HU family DNA-binding protein
Amino acid sequence: MNKNELVNNISEKSGLTKKDVELVVNELLDEITEALKKDEKVQFVGFGTFETRERSSRTGRNPQTGETINIPASTVPAFRAGNKLKEAVK
């Protein structure tokens, strides 16, 4: 499912306009992004937690030349599923 399909499904189920639903979805995603930029966790009890993780530097290999390269440390977004979501997907 992509974002447009999500907006359409929520619009049909809630009776809200697609424009209103899209605004809410975009704002939700923006708020999650801003929180992660501040190194804050965003937790939806039962659904899951959005957080950042530190990835240490490591050695990699250029697939075209086979040359070894240094991949620098970075901060990456991560999602950890909650128990209710895990059970629902089983």
Q: What stands out?
A: The mean pLDDT is 96.
